[in-house]
Specification:
Elements lengths: L4 H26 L10 H10 L1 H35 L1 H16 L6 H8 L3 H25 L3 H9 L4 H39 L4 H10 L3 H29 L1 H10 L1
């Protein structure tokens, strides 16, 4: 019996995940690897079920911290992206600074943030913001800067102002770039939150993993990693769904062009 291609496409992520977990379990059991070195998925699952309440408490804190930093990054990145993309002078002036800032490892900012704001939630939010706003700026600026000059000339000849062009043509044209950046930025925001929590927090998955690793509780460390990965996948798929819903016209245009 041959399965429909669409069903195979939907099942493929689950089948691959099951295959990886089966190989992981077989390697751990077959080579008798010690749990404090590389725990088997069955042991990770057991520890995750036993400690589900504290894991969920720390996970919810990390999730809310990440969303707060991500929301600030989206607002700031979108506004700065529109400014950068709308003006060639601002683009040339700011772009080297943005690239240089993005090249600095954000973990280097955490000790500074701890001195300024103390240990807790604020450094994690700011770190999530710092690490995730750059993709939003770049993609929004790219979407606006790729607007055809001929189209702008036609709109100006019809009496459209610069603000009209930006509002009615530039922003809608940059929406596919914007939603593409959200999928990248949300995963980076999780990275920023967890980095800060491992250094300067007493709550969150990062703190939980550091505490577990200090006592060689590697199954709990891996449980934390899996929870972070699951939250990242869920939020990524949410923005992918929003992208398909709100930029369907762009995908239609691409398919018709092909």
């Amino acid at each position: 019996m041959k399965l429909p291609p669409r069903l195979i496409s939907r099942l493929s992520p689950w089948l691959l995940t099951l295959f990886v977990l089966t190989c992981w379990e077989a390697i751990c059991q077959g080579f008798e690897i010690k749990p404090f070195l590389f725990p088997a998925p069955s042991l990770v699952w057991k520890v995750g079920v036993e400690l589900a309440q504290p894991i969920m408490m720390h996970a919810s804190h990390t999730f809310m911290t990440t969303l707060a930093g991500f929301a600030i990054a989206v607002i700031f990145g979108a506004v700065l992206g529109m400014v950068v993309g709308s003006s060639p002078i601002v683009y040339k002036a700011l772009y080297p600074l943005l690239v240089g800032f993005n090249s600095i490892p954000k973990v280097a900012f955490v000790p500074v943030l701890v001195v300024w704001f103390g240990i807790g939630t604020v450094p994690a939010i700011i770190t999530a913001f710092l690490i995730s706003f750059f993709p939003v700026v770049v993609n929004v600026a790219t979407g606006l800067s790729t607007l055809e000059p001929e189209l702008e000339d036609v709109l100006r000849s019809l009496g459209a102002s610069r603000l009209d062009i930006l509002r009615k043509v530039g922003i809608p044209r940059s929406l596919p770039f914007f939603f593409a950046s959200l999928k990248v930025a949300i995963t980076l925001a999780f990275v920023g939150s967890v980095i800060s929590e491992t250094v300067a927090s007493n709550l969150g998955i990062g703190y939980l993993m550091m505490s577990a690793s200090s006592s060689m509780n590697m199954p709990l460390v891996f449980a934390g990693l899996i929870v972070i990965g699951a939250m990242g996948v869920i939020t990524y798929e949410l923005f992918a769904w929003l992208e398909r819903r709100l930029t369907r016209w762009a995908h239609r245009g691409q398919s018709s062009a092909i």
